Amino acid sequence: MKRILVTGGAGYIGSHTTLELLDAGYDVVVADNLSRGHRSAVEPARLREVDILDTPGLVRVMQEQPVDAVIHFAAYIAVGESMKDPGLYFRNNVSGSISLVNAMQEAGVRNIVFSSTAAVYGMPAVVPIPESLPYAPINVYGETKVMVEKVLDWFGQTQGLRSVCLRYFNASGADPAARAGEDHEPETHLIPLLFQAIETGTPATLFGNDYPTPDGSCIRDYIHVSDLARAHIGAVEWLMTGGVSRRFNVGTGAGYSVQEVVDAVARVVGKPVPHTWGPRREGDPATLVADSSSLRNELGWAPRDSALDRIVETAWRWYNR
After folding, report:
1. Does domain 190-220+253-319 have CATH number 3.90.25.10?
2. How far apart are CA 288 and CA 124, in angstroms?
3. Catalytic site includes residue 89
4. Residue 300: which region, alpha, beta or left (left: phi > 0; alpha: psi -120 to 50)?
5. Where are the domains of the chain?
């Protein structure tokens, strides 16, 4: 049985990927310092409480139970926070990833799937976004992901490390069996915020309804978190069967507007969503949709759960668990 180390596996996408790996017959070890993850999201026997910056600790984890590959989620993800505290993000996201790769080298692990982001493209001139666009991040968070992608590329050229970087936008939804879901503190993602607005009666503030889109609100590529988890499994299997290092977008290629998400939440929950429209946020493009044709064609991946109502239904089931 192949064993996979999942860093940040107590977080949102990491916990779902762990579940999908177990469902697919893999053994899984989770490394997480629980600073932003949740102990309850991981089976106790699988959890190793270790910081991503603790290189010797990571080496011990990989030597005590030898692993065949790493899937790396242990990053901070809030764009606004990254602009307020760049040092925090460079230290955890970049230095932490270097620590992990050094530990992999010492432990003899050669395969890594990296949870990257379509924020590496910044304000793309082409939509749907192809992987061929140059790096152009417009915030610290996106820059940290660019730097890690470059680190992995150089370790590949000089040390034989093989990597797949997966770039995606809006992970959403929850495990269909309600075994895991979205639980950020503070919550910044749209669908849980709309649920909170329904529950509390306090209107959610939405940013910008004057964009050049059909209904005036931003369009984003929402992908169900379980579909995203399966993309990570496809990527790790690609590496373990001899695939070369690659960069893939992960998305539906369609996209939904903020207003369409509000309407879907109201439809699924059966209640109107209290909300107000605020001004645009600086740096928010009108439309961001990923071209994931390379992932579909080369890895055979396709989304199964990313219809908008399906995303909202699974998220609502988790929210009311």
Report:
1. yes
2. 8
3. no
4. left
5. 3-171+222-249, 190-220+253-319
Residue 319: phi and psi, rounded to 5, are: -60, -30
Distance CA 138, CA 151 (A): 19
Burial state string for 47-73 with b = 16 or more CB within 10 A and e = fewer than 16: bbebbbbbbebbbebbeeeebbbbbbb
Q: Which helix (DSSP H) or strand (DSSP E) does residue 130 occupy?
A: none
pLDDT of 31-66, one tens digit each? 999 999 999 999 999 999 999 999 999 999 999 999
Residue 200, both tokens:
């509390």
Per-chain mean pLDDT for the chain: 96
For the residues 235-251, what does the mean pLDDT come to?
98
Q: Helices 308-319 and 190-200 sit at what angle, rounded to 10 degrees?
A: 50
pTM of full prediction above 0.90: yes
DSSP letter for 95, please.
I
Tens of pLDDT, residue by residue over 150-173, are: 999 999 999 999 999 999 989 999
Task: Specify the CATH number for 3-171+222-249; select among 3.40.50.300, 3.10.150.10, 3.40.50.720, 3.40.50.10860.
Answer: 3.40.50.720
Of the listed 26, 141, 211, 256, which one is catalytic?
141
Question: Residue 262 has which token pair?
Answer: 């509000």
Closest by CA position to 195, among listed 60, 281, 319: 319
CA distance 260 to 199: 20
Q: Which two tokens stand for residue 230?
A: 């399966």
SS3 content of the chain, % helix, strand, coil (to 5): 45, 15, 40
Q: Residue 60: CB partners within 8 Å, gap ≥ 6?
A: none
Residue 90 has pLDDT above 90, yes or no: yes
Query: Measuring CA to CA, how many Å separate 33 from each of 9, 18, 92, 105?
Result: 10, 16, 12, 21
In this structure, which amino acid lies at residue 117? Answer: T
